[in-house]
Structure formats: structure tokens, C-alpha cells
Amino acid sequence: MDRILIAEAGKAIYEPLLMACRANGWESLTAHTAAEAVRLCRIVRFDLLLIDTVLPDEDGFSLAQRLQPFGIPVLFIAPPLALQDRLRGFALGAAGILEKPPDIPELLARIKSILRRSAYIPKHASIGDVTVYFDKRRVRKNGQEIPLTLTEFLLLEILLRNPDTVLSREKLLEVVWGFGTAGDTRTVDVHIMKLRRKLGLQNEIRAVYKIGYRLNAPKAP
Questions:
Q1: 124-215: what CATH class?
Q2: Strand runs (DSSP E) across the chain, as ranges?
Q3: For 67-79, how does the pLDDT look when each residue is reduced to its tens digit (9 = 90+)?
Q4: What are φ and ψ of residue 31, in 5° steps?
Q5: What angle separates helix 104-118 from helix 11-23, to the nearest 10 degrees?
């Protein structure tokens, strides 16, 4: 079953969206703040994000940018926007921008189109003898399941979805742990060390001096 996260603070908006999505058989959750949306994305695998560009604690564009490393399609819901703001949304890879309050039939048609395209994206990726199943959040090495903590899995997923890209320790702290420069970057180093040891990825997960880490691997979905 496809999962949708609705990041929307206004009850008059999120209630009909939630009802419409659930009526179409999609498992749907709501987040009323950006912080709550980030928390939910850490513990639940979503197939689509519906994000209001105006949230109490952060604008929706900034939230979408923070969640980009998860590789989840985004559909924005927004008040009338200037062209510059619309371009900002599409520059973030938005699948669409709908004006508030959204027309429900149009919204559902957009969601179905996005989910159809997403259905063709592989749900797993491999690095050597390690296979990662994103939807089930499971990892196997040589066919044997390797138990990872949620934090370890999220860290591995972010690296896989951004191959050959240098990710700073601060960025990893922000996406995986939910905080950036205020956190202790040594936390990242400790978890990377555990991940390498558990999966034998010492050569694939490479440290970039004074910056962070890069995964040398084929591009993941």
C-alpha cells in the first residue's frame, strides 16, 4: 500500500485531503509542523509528500530541501505564488504545485500519476554483496539478513540515494538525526564505523577529509 504524508497545519485543508487519500486506499498520515514531518520521515517510508509551503515553524520549500536526500516525490500545496517562488519549488524537483484550497479531483489525479511513475522505481539497491530493501528497511549480505538500527539504516539509505556525492557531517546530522550544526559530528563518525564493520563497506563508504563521507557505488533509485 502506498503511503502519503500530508504536511499541513490548517484543519480545513488537511481533513478533506486525508479523507480523500484514505478513500482511495492510500495509507495517509498528517504532520502539522515541519519538525513533525522530519520525525515521521525518519521512522516511516513514504511514497509521496504533500507539503504546504506555509508551515508554523518552517516554510515548505525549506522542508522539502531538507528531505531531498530521502528521494521522495513532493507535491506542493500553496497560496498564490509569485513566479520566482514557483520556480523555486520546481528547482527543488517538485512534481507539481497546487493552489490552496486544492481541487480534490485534480489533486487525486496528480497523486495517481506520481504514484504510477514511482511504481517503476526499484525498491532495492545493491553494493557488492549487500542488498538494501528501501520499502521494507531490511539489509542482506550474501543472502543473510543483517540487523541494523533505524539510525544505521537511514544513514545507509541517504548515502545510497546520493552516490558519489560528498555529504557533510552536518548534512547527515540534519537529515538522519534531525539536527545540524548544533549536534556533535563525532556521532556520524561512530555510526559510519559501525555501518562499515557490519556490512564490510570499508572501501565503498569513504571519508572526505574535514568534510564528511561519500559512497562510491552505482546510483540508487
A1: mainly alpha
A2: 3-7, 27-31, 48-52, 74-78, 96-99, 124-127, 130-133, 138-141, 144-145, 167-168, 205-208, 212-215
A3: 888 888 999 999 9
A4: -130, 130
A5: 50
144-145 and 205-208: which strand pairing?
Answer: unpaired
Residue 107: closest CA among 120, 98, 95, 119? 98
Q: Which residues of the chain have pLDDT under 50?
A: 220
Domain 3-118: CATH class, spelled out: alpha beta
C-alpha cell at 208: 572526505
| Residue in the structure block whose three cell numbers are 520521515 | 41
Place of cell 532495492: 124
Grid cell 513532493 in the structure block, residue:
74
Q: Which long-range contacts (CB under 8 A, 24 or more apart) does 180-183 make?
A: none
The per-residue pLDDT for 175 is 82
Cell of 199: 556490512
Q: Decide whether 3-118 matches 124-215 in CATH topology.
A: no
3-class DSSP assignment, residue 147: coil
Euclidean distance between CA atoms 20 and 108, whole angstroms: 8
Extents of the domains making up the chain: 3-118, 124-215
Predicted pLDDT of residue 119: 66
Q: What was the pLDDT predicted at 124?
A: 81
User: Which of helix, strand or coil describes residue 203?
Assistant: coil
Q: Identify any residues that bridge with 130 across adjacent strands, giving them in sequence order.
A: 127, 141
Beta-ladder partners of 5:
29, 49
Residue the block writes with cell 563497506: 201
The dihedral region occupied by 19, where left means phi > 0, alpha psi between -120 and 50, and beta the remainder, is: alpha
Q: What is the pTM of this model?
A: 0.74
**Are 123 and 134 within 8 A, CB to CB?**
yes
